[in-house]
Amino acid sequence: MPAATSRRETSARVVVVLAGGLSHERDVSLRSGRRVADALRTAGIEVSVHDVDADLIAALTEAGPDLVWPLLHGASGEDGSVRDVLELLGLPYLGTGPRSSRVAWSKPIAKTVAARAGLSTPDFVTLPQSLFRELGAGRVLAALLRRFALPLVVKPSHGGSALGVTLVQDPADLPRAMVDAFAYGDTALIEQAVVGRELAVSVITDAAGPRALPAVEIVTDGPYDYDARYNPGRTEYFAPARLTASEAAAVAEVAVTAHRALGLRHISRTDLILDGDGVPQFLEVNVAPGMTETSLLPQAAVAGGHDLPTLYRDLVEVALADLSA
């Protein structure tokens, strides 16, 4: 990657955190950005937080940071486009590159890559809204119900924070679930629901390469939806997850395998379900994990004995070393 447009000769690190954007997950991104910026400042790093707006390119050019940390969730933040712009500007950044971000951003493609890497993932199909209309909604839904047993999970093929995601247990609820998914994207992923323990396994990179943090187990009073994720009280987290040593090793291996197979860099989070047979079922991966007070990666880091300011500072150093190699 080209050198940044301006570099400081002092030893102090200067980082620009990107947060906000225009996606449905803007509020979560802003909260993530504030939390990471505060932690980096505690670790002695000079930090500014900037939104993705018409002033961004000028601000980045003027700041000439040592590193940019994109904490943008949803479209543009995770689909590789902002990372493409950072590369055009010659600015080093923490996280996955644009091409691999686009692969991970597409849930169907990520599941296909994971399956080819030997991971188990629930059976699924994808349906674009245009085809759904052209062939007739009723006929397509009938075909789905003949092909898959209930329950099903219907979700947008892109996106995060469980926006537009529905667990369908009654055939009468399937049409509404499709409408909800299409509200957040042109293509829906319909996936066989898996019964088991819901887990999130974050991966960070240190000098030895990518490694998994302790799994976090998620127990909710209903669907693990947007409200349950970001508003305390509805969800109970177990960090580390209540797993045997062999189960913990198995889910860690899944997360690291997905990270490598998808070409991810520095940081990621894999969501999976450990089914009744003890098999980890890969669901999706996130290249810009949430960093809010209820987010899973910070919980995993603390469970692993990490001090968050120190960990985030170390990630900055690893990213700089990696990008200058």
TrEMBL record:
<dbReference type="InterPro" id="IPR016185">
    <property type="entry name" value="PreATP-grasp_dom_sf"/>
</dbReference>
<dbReference type="InterPro" id="IPR011095">
    <property type="entry name" value="Dala_Dala_lig_C"/>
</dbReference>
<keyword id="KW-0963">Cytoplasm</keyword>
<feature type="active site">
    <location>
        <position position="161"/>
    </location>
</feature>
<feature type="domain" description="ATP-grasp">
    <location>
        <begin position="111"/>
        <end position="317"/>
    </location>
</feature>
<keyword id="KW-0479">Metal-binding</keyword>
<dbReference type="GO" id="GO:0005524">
    <property type="term" value="F:ATP binding"/>
</dbReference>
<dbReference type="GO" id="GO:0005737">
    <property type="term" value="C:cytoplasm"/>
</dbReference>
<dbReference type="GO" id="GO:0071555">
    <property type="term" value="P:cell wall organization"/>
</dbReference>
<dbReference type="GO" id="GO:0008360">
    <property type="term" value="P:regulation of cell shape"/>
</dbReference>
<keyword id="KW-0436">Ligase</keyword>
<feature type="binding site">
    <location>
        <position position="284"/>
    </location>
    <ligand>
        <name>Mg(2+) 2</name>
    </ligand>
</feature>
<dbReference type="GO" id="GO:0009252">
    <property type="term" value="P:peptidoglycan biosynthetic process"/>
</dbReference>
<dbReference type="InterPro" id="IPR011761">
    <property type="entry name" value="ATP-grasp"/>
</dbReference>
<keyword id="KW-0133">Cell shape</keyword>
<keyword id="KW-0067">ATP-binding</keyword>
<keyword id="KW-0573">Peptidoglycan synthesis</keyword>
<protein>
    <recommendedName>
        <fullName>D-alanine--D-alanine ligase</fullName>
        <ecNumber>6.3.2.4</ecNumber>
    </recommendedName>
</protein>
<keyword id="KW-0464">Manganese</keyword>
<dbReference type="GO" id="GO:0046872">
    <property type="term" value="F:metal ion binding"/>
</dbReference>
<feature type="binding site">
    <location>
        <position position="271"/>
    </location>
    <ligand>
        <name>Mg(2+) 1</name>
    </ligand>
</feature>
<comment type="pathway">
    <text>Cell wall biogenesis; peptidoglycan biosynthesis.</text>
</comment>
<comment type="function">
    <text>Cell wall formation.</text>
</comment>
<keyword id="KW-0961">Cell wall biogenesis/degradation</keyword>
<dbReference type="InterPro" id="IPR013815">
    <property type="entry name" value="ATP_grasp_subdomain_1"/>
</dbReference>
<dbReference type="Pfam" id="PF07478">
    <property type="entry name" value="Dala_Dala_lig_C"/>
</dbReference>
<comment type="similarity">
    <text>Belongs to the D-alanine--D-alanine ligase family.</text>
</comment>
<feature type="binding site">
    <location>
        <position position="286"/>
    </location>
    <ligand>
        <name>Mg(2+) 2</name>
    </ligand>
</feature>
<dbReference type="GO" id="GO:0008716">
    <property type="term" value="F:D-alanine-D-alanine ligase activity"/>
</dbReference>
<keyword id="KW-0547">Nucleotide-binding</keyword>
<feature type="active site">
    <location>
        <position position="25"/>
    </location>
</feature>
<keyword id="KW-0460">Magnesium</keyword>
<feature type="binding site">
    <location>
        <position position="284"/>
    </location>
    <ligand>
        <name>Mg(2+) 1</name>
    </ligand>
</feature>
<dbReference type="InterPro" id="IPR005905">
    <property type="entry name" value="D_ala_D_ala"/>
</dbReference>
<feature type="active site">
    <location>
        <position position="295"/>
    </location>
</feature>
